[in-house]
Amino acid sequence: MHEMALCQSIIEIIEDEARRRSLSQVRSVCLEIGTLSHVAPEAIKFCFAVVAARTIAESAALKIVELPGEAWCMSCSKSVKIPRRGERCPCCGSYQLQVTAGEQMRVKELEFY
C-alpha cells in the first residue's frame, strides 16, 4: 500500500514546516488528490490517522479535495474532463488523449494552532 509511504512523507512535510515556523501542533491538513493519481482518498484517510499518531499532526483534521482528470484531445483539439485513464474523448470519441491534469497529489494547506 503506497498510501502509507505517501502519508509518512506528508508528516515529514508537516514537521519540517512546523520546525521552520517554531510551531508545535497542527489543526488541519488539506490535500489535493487528482482522480488520475492512483491514490485512493479513503486509504489516505486511514493511513494518515495511523501515521499521524504520536506526532504533531495527531489531532489534525484531514481534508481531501479531489481534482478531476483532464486531457487534450489530439483529434478534435479540445480540452476535456475524463473520469479515468483509457476513456474516449466525450466530444469526438477518439482515444488519442494526452493527460494534462488530475495526476497530482500535494499538500495544499496547513493550519497550525
UniProtKB/TrEMBL annotation:
UniProt keyword terms in alphabetical order: Metal-binding, Nickel, Zinc
Binding sites annotated in the UniProt record for Ni(2+): H2
Keyword Zinc: yes
InterPro entries registered for this protein in UniProt: Hydgase_Ni_incorp_HypA/HybF_CS (IPR020538), HypA/HybF (IPR000688)
Residues that, per the record, bind Zn(2+): C73, C76, C89, C92
Source superkingdom: Bacteria
HAMAP family in the record: HypA_HybF
Record-linked NCBIfam families: hypA
Record function comment: Involved in the maturation of [NiFe] hydrogenases. Required for nickel insertion into the metal center of the hydrogenase.
PANTHER family: HYDROGENASE MATURATION FACTOR HYPA (PTHR34535)
Family per similarity comment: Belongs to the HypA/HybF family.
Name under which the protein is recorded: Hydrogenase maturation factor HypA
Gene: hypA
